[in-house]
Structure prediction request, 271 residues.
Amino acid sequence: MKANRLLRPAPLATLFSLFAASLAMAQHEGGGGGFSEKSLWDMIRLGGPIMIPLFLFSVAMVWLVIDGVQRSGQKRLMPEGEVEKLRNFFRAGDYVGAHQSCADTPCAFNNVVRAGLVNVGDGKEATEEAILAEISREQQRQSTRLSYLSVIGVCTPMVGLIGTVFGMIGAFGELGKGGATQNTSGLSEKIGEVLVATASGLVIAVPAFMGFYFLRNRLQGSLHELENEVANLFRKFPYHLAEGVHVGDQELYANAPAWVEGSGAEAPAGA
Prediction:
Protein backbone atom coordinates (compact mmCIF):
# COMPACT_ATOMS: atom_id res chain seq x y z
CA MET A 1 0.00 0.00 0.00
CA LYS A 2 2.82 2.36 0.91
CA ALA A 3 4.68 1.47 -2.25
CA ASN A 4 1.59 2.32 -4.33
CA ARG A 5 1.41 5.75 -2.74
CA LEU A 6 5.01 6.43 -3.70
CA LEU A 7 4.43 5.36 -7.27
CA ARG A 8 1.33 7.48 -7.88
CA PRO A 9 3.03 10.89 -8.38
CA ALA A 10 5.82 9.39 -10.46
CA PRO A 11 4.19 10.00 -13.91
CA LEU A 12 3.50 13.63 -13.12
CA ALA A 13 6.99 14.19 -11.75
CA THR A 14 8.46 12.47 -14.79
CA LEU A 15 6.36 14.62 -17.10
CA PHE A 16 7.53 17.88 -15.56
CA SER A 17 11.12 16.63 -15.55
CA LEU A 18 10.83 15.92 -19.24
CA PHE A 19 9.25 19.35 -19.77
CA ALA A 20 12.18 21.02 -18.05
CA ALA A 21 14.60 18.97 -20.12
CA SER A 22 12.83 19.87 -23.35
CA LEU A 23 12.90 23.55 -22.48
CA ALA A 24 16.60 23.36 -21.75
CA MET A 25 17.23 21.58 -25.04
CA ALA A 26 15.14 24.12 -26.94
CA GLN A 27 17.18 26.91 -25.41
CA HIS A 28 20.37 25.13 -26.29
CA GLU A 29 19.25 24.61 -29.89
CA GLY A 30 18.38 28.30 -30.14
CA GLY A 31 22.03 29.16 -29.64
CA GLY A 32 21.81 30.05 -25.98
CA GLY A 33 20.06 33.31 -26.69
CA GLY A 34 17.06 32.54 -24.47
CA PHE A 35 13.49 31.59 -25.22
CA SER A 36 11.77 32.91 -28.28
CA GLU A 37 9.11 35.40 -27.34
CA LYS A 38 5.51 34.49 -28.19
CA SER A 39 2.63 36.84 -28.76
CA LEU A 40 -0.68 36.59 -26.95
CA TRP A 41 -2.25 35.05 -30.04
CA ASP A 42 0.47 32.38 -30.12
CA MET A 43 -0.27 31.54 -26.50
CA ILE A 44 -4.00 31.31 -27.22
CA ARG A 45 -3.35 29.01 -30.17
CA LEU A 46 -1.14 26.90 -27.94
CA GLY A 47 -4.12 26.25 -25.68
CA GLY A 48 -5.86 24.27 -28.41
CA PRO A 49 -9.57 24.02 -29.33
CA ILE A 50 -10.65 24.32 -25.68
CA MET A 51 -9.77 28.02 -25.87
CA ILE A 52 -12.86 28.65 -28.02
CA PRO A 53 -15.41 28.00 -25.22
CA LEU A 54 -13.11 29.75 -22.76
CA PHE A 55 -13.06 32.80 -25.02
CA LEU A 56 -16.87 32.77 -25.16
CA PHE A 57 -16.99 32.53 -21.37
CA SER A 58 -14.68 35.53 -21.07
CA VAL A 59 -16.85 37.62 -23.42
CA ALA A 60 -19.96 36.67 -21.45
CA MET A 61 -18.23 37.54 -18.17
CA VAL A 62 -17.26 41.01 -19.37
CA TRP A 63 -20.76 41.67 -20.68
CA LEU A 64 -22.41 40.45 -17.45
CA VAL A 65 -20.13 42.62 -15.31
CA ILE A 66 -20.87 45.74 -17.36
CA ASP A 67 -24.59 44.97 -17.39
CA GLY A 68 -24.55 44.25 -13.65
CA VAL A 69 -22.85 47.54 -12.84
CA GLN A 70 -25.55 49.39 -14.76
CA ARG A 71 -28.45 47.41 -13.31
CA SER A 72 -27.36 47.43 -9.67
CA GLY A 73 -26.67 51.17 -9.47
CA GLN A 74 -28.86 53.23 -7.17
CA LYS A 75 -29.54 55.79 -9.91
CA ARG A 76 -30.82 53.04 -12.21
CA LEU A 77 -33.10 51.48 -9.59
CA MET A 78 -34.46 54.76 -8.23
CA PRO A 79 -33.87 57.72 -10.58
CA GLU A 80 -33.75 61.02 -8.73
CA GLY A 81 -36.33 62.58 -11.05
CA GLU A 82 -38.85 59.81 -10.36
CA VAL A 83 -38.27 59.98 -6.62
CA GLU A 84 -38.88 63.72 -6.53
CA LYS A 85 -41.93 63.41 -8.78
CA LEU A 86 -43.56 60.90 -6.42
CA ARG A 87 -42.68 63.02 -3.41
CA ASN A 88 -44.63 65.89 -4.94
CA PHE A 89 -47.62 63.62 -5.64
CA PHE A 90 -47.61 62.39 -2.05
CA ARG A 91 -47.30 65.93 -0.72
CA ALA A 92 -50.37 66.91 -2.73
CA GLY A 93 -52.29 63.79 -1.74
CA ASP A 94 -52.71 62.86 -5.41
CA TYR A 95 -52.27 59.11 -5.06
CA VAL A 96 -54.12 58.35 -8.27
CA GLY A 97 -51.67 60.61 -10.13
CA ALA A 98 -48.78 58.91 -8.31
CA HIS A 99 -50.04 55.49 -9.40
CA GLN A 100 -50.40 56.65 -12.99
CA SER A 101 -46.89 58.12 -12.95
CA CYS A 102 -45.50 54.80 -11.72
CA ALA A 103 -47.33 52.96 -14.48
CA ASP A 104 -46.08 55.35 -17.18
CA THR A 105 -42.41 55.11 -16.13
CA PRO A 106 -41.59 51.59 -14.95
CA CYS A 107 -38.48 51.19 -12.79
CA ALA A 108 -37.72 49.33 -9.59
CA PHE A 109 -38.67 52.26 -7.35
CA ASN A 110 -41.91 53.00 -9.21
CA ASN A 111 -42.88 49.33 -9.27
CA VAL A 112 -42.56 49.10 -5.50
CA VAL A 113 -44.49 52.33 -4.86
CA ARG A 114 -47.20 51.22 -7.27
CA ALA A 115 -47.59 47.89 -5.45
CA GLY A 116 -48.03 49.78 -2.19
CA LEU A 117 -50.60 52.22 -3.62
CA VAL A 118 -52.73 49.41 -5.01
CA ASN A 119 -53.12 47.99 -1.49
CA VAL A 120 -53.60 51.16 0.61
CA GLY A 121 -57.35 50.51 0.76
CA ASP A 122 -56.70 47.23 2.60
CA GLY A 123 -54.80 48.86 5.45
CA LYS A 124 -51.24 49.43 6.61
CA GLU A 125 -50.32 45.79 7.11
CA ALA A 126 -51.44 44.76 3.62
CA THR A 127 -49.62 47.73 2.10
CA GLU A 128 -46.33 46.92 3.86
CA GLU A 129 -46.58 43.27 2.87
CA ALA A 130 -47.16 44.25 -0.76
CA ILE A 131 -44.15 46.59 -0.69
CA LEU A 132 -41.85 43.90 0.76
CA ALA A 133 -43.13 41.32 -1.73
CA GLU A 134 -42.45 43.67 -4.65
CA ILE A 135 -38.95 44.46 -3.34
CA SER A 136 -38.28 40.72 -3.18
CA ARG A 137 -39.46 40.34 -6.78
CA GLU A 138 -37.26 43.20 -7.89
CA GLN A 139 -34.28 41.65 -6.16
CA GLN A 140 -34.95 38.34 -7.89
CA ARG A 141 -35.44 40.08 -11.23
CA GLN A 142 -32.26 42.12 -10.98
CA SER A 143 -30.07 39.31 -9.63
CA THR A 144 -31.01 36.72 -12.26
CA ARG A 145 -28.25 37.79 -14.64
CA LEU A 146 -25.76 38.20 -11.81
CA SER A 147 -26.13 34.52 -10.95
CA TYR A 148 -24.64 33.63 -14.34
CA LEU A 149 -21.35 35.16 -13.20
CA SER A 150 -21.23 32.55 -10.46
CA VAL A 151 -21.98 29.86 -13.05
CA ILE A 152 -19.08 31.08 -15.18
CA GLY A 153 -16.81 31.11 -12.14
CA VAL A 154 -17.65 27.46 -11.46
CA CYS A 155 -17.61 26.19 -15.05
CA THR A 156 -14.48 27.79 -16.51
CA PRO A 157 -11.97 25.93 -14.30
CA MET A 158 -13.74 22.71 -15.25
CA VAL A 159 -13.53 23.58 -18.94
CA GLY A 160 -9.84 24.41 -18.48
CA LEU A 161 -9.45 21.07 -16.73
CA ILE A 162 -10.88 19.33 -19.80
CA GLY A 163 -8.16 21.00 -21.86
CA THR A 164 -5.64 19.91 -19.25
CA VAL A 165 -6.73 16.28 -19.49
CA PHE A 166 -6.60 16.22 -23.30
CA GLY A 167 -3.25 18.01 -23.23
CA MET A 168 -1.85 15.41 -20.83
CA ILE A 169 -3.13 12.62 -23.06
CA GLY A 170 -1.43 14.24 -26.05
CA ALA A 171 1.76 14.78 -24.06
CA PHE A 172 2.00 11.14 -23.09
CA GLY A 173 1.20 10.22 -26.69
CA GLU A 174 4.14 12.31 -27.91
CA LEU A 175 6.29 10.78 -25.20
CA GLY A 176 5.39 7.31 -26.39
CA LYS A 177 6.24 8.05 -30.02
CA GLY A 178 9.96 8.59 -29.74
CA GLY A 179 11.05 9.33 -26.21
CA ALA A 180 11.80 12.59 -24.50
CA THR A 181 15.09 13.22 -26.31
CA GLN A 182 13.79 12.53 -29.83
CA ASN A 183 10.49 14.42 -29.77
CA THR A 184 11.03 17.38 -27.48
CA SER A 185 9.17 19.86 -29.70
CA GLY A 186 5.91 17.93 -29.73
CA LEU A 187 6.18 17.15 -26.03
CA SER A 188 6.76 20.79 -25.13
CA GLU A 189 3.79 21.88 -27.24
CA LYS A 190 1.43 19.43 -25.57
CA ILE A 191 2.58 20.36 -22.07
CA GLY A 192 2.22 24.03 -22.98
CA GLU A 193 -1.35 23.30 -24.04
CA VAL A 194 -1.96 21.79 -20.61
CA LEU A 195 -0.68 24.86 -18.77
CA VAL A 196 -2.37 27.45 -21.02
CA ALA A 197 -5.80 25.79 -20.78
CA THR A 198 -5.58 25.51 -16.99
CA ALA A 199 -4.37 29.06 -16.51
CA SER A 200 -7.02 30.46 -18.85
CA GLY A 201 -9.83 28.80 -16.92
CA LEU A 202 -8.56 30.27 -13.64
CA VAL A 203 -7.95 33.71 -15.14
CA ILE A 204 -11.62 33.86 -16.15
CA ALA A 205 -13.03 32.27 -12.99
CA VAL A 206 -11.35 34.58 -10.47
CA PRO A 207 -12.73 37.91 -11.82
CA ALA A 208 -16.10 36.24 -12.45
CA PHE A 209 -16.43 35.33 -8.77
CA MET A 210 -15.14 38.73 -7.66
CA GLY A 211 -17.60 40.49 -9.95
CA PHE A 212 -20.48 38.32 -8.73
CA TYR A 213 -19.95 39.07 -5.03
CA PHE A 214 -19.22 42.75 -5.64
CA LEU A 215 -22.35 43.25 -7.75
CA ARG A 216 -24.51 41.21 -5.39
CA ASN A 217 -23.51 43.41 -2.45
CA ARG A 218 -23.95 46.53 -4.58
CA LEU A 219 -27.48 45.44 -5.53
CA GLN A 220 -28.41 44.69 -1.92
CA GLY A 221 -27.20 48.11 -0.84
CA SER A 222 -29.19 49.85 -3.57
CA LEU A 223 -32.35 47.91 -2.72
CA HIS A 224 -31.89 48.80 0.95
CA GLU A 225 -31.83 52.49 0.04
CA LEU A 226 -34.89 51.96 -2.17
CA GLU A 227 -36.76 50.35 0.71
CA ASN A 228 -35.91 53.27 3.00
CA GLU A 229 -37.14 55.81 0.44
CA VAL A 230 -40.42 53.97 -0.08
CA ALA A 231 -40.90 53.73 3.68
CA ASN A 232 -40.42 57.50 3.91
CA LEU A 233 -43.12 58.05 1.31
CA PHE A 234 -45.70 55.90 3.13
CA ARG A 235 -44.86 57.13 6.61
CA LYS A 236 -47.94 58.75 8.25
CA PHE A 237 -50.10 57.62 5.34
CA PRO A 238 -53.83 58.28 6.13
CA TYR A 239 -54.94 54.67 5.87
CA HIS A 240 -58.21 55.43 7.70
CA LEU A 241 -59.21 57.83 4.93
CA ALA A 242 -58.29 55.36 2.17
CA GLU A 243 -60.10 52.37 3.69
CA GLY A 244 -61.93 50.42 1.00
CA VAL A 245 -60.59 52.67 -1.78
CA HIS A 246 -59.08 51.01 -4.85
CA VAL A 247 -56.22 52.96 -6.41
CA GLY A 248 -55.33 51.99 -9.94
CA ASP A 249 -56.97 50.50 -12.96
CA GLN A 250 -56.48 46.83 -12.12
CA GLU A 251 -59.66 44.80 -12.33
CA LEU A 252 -60.96 43.40 -9.06
CA TYR A 253 -62.36 39.94 -9.64
CA ALA A 254 -63.69 39.15 -6.18
CA ASN A 255 -67.26 40.31 -5.67
CA ALA A 256 -70.01 39.87 -3.12
CA PRO A 257 -71.44 36.35 -2.92
CA ALA A 258 -74.15 35.68 -5.46
CA TRP A 259 -76.65 34.69 -2.76
CA VAL A 260 -76.30 38.14 -1.15
CA GLU A 261 -77.00 40.33 -4.14
CA GLY A 262 -78.82 37.82 -6.36
CA SER A 263 -82.57 37.78 -6.59
CA GLY A 264 -83.29 34.16 -5.94
CA ALA A 265 -80.00 32.34 -5.34
CA GLU A 266 -79.93 30.14 -2.27
CA ALA A 267 -77.09 30.23 0.24
CA PRO A 268 -74.88 27.11 0.26
CA ALA A 269 -75.52 24.51 2.88
CA GLY A 270 -74.03 25.37 6.25
CA ALA A 271 -73.89 29.10 5.51
Notes: The chain has one domain: 46-247.
